[in-house]
Design brief:
Number of strands: 11
Radius of gyration: 21 Å
Strand content: over 45%
Largest sheet: 5 strands, mixed, barrel
Structural class: mainly beta
Distance between the termini: 64 Å
Order of helices and strands: EEEEEEEEEEE
Strand order of the largest sheet: 1-2-3-5-4
Helix content: under 10%
Number of helices: 0
Length: 148
Amino acid sequence: MFLKASIQKVLIDLHKRFFQANLYTNQTGNFLQYHSGGDDYSPALDCEGLGGTIGNNPANGFIFAWKDNILKKSQPGEKRIYSVKNGTEVAAEIYLKNDGNIEITGSENVEVNINGSITALHVNASDGVTGTFTNSITVKNGIVIGGS
């Protein structure tokens, strides 16, 4: 049987993340986080999770699913990855759209750090962007100022 749980405290032990949580059955305990491979997600406090115990043993508690109050906007076939601040608003997101576009946005000035290179058919240097591309095109404040 799965139960709803409210996260009260996050505990990290090397490669494991535990939560002190209140089950909606008025029990408080420690629960091990299970998630899909490649994920590293630490939900905001008071986030609602779904979990239970293995073999009805309270020492083997787990949580594996999360429900938050963030607006859901992904359409069929899309994937959206986001972080939250204050538990209620999106701080940053990567949105893989079903038309092949990828949107990277944030609530503040977005800084994307890439250790490597990006290859694209089209680069849109929006207003305010400054830098030099590998083909020697120089952009300042979103305007091409040099190169060919």
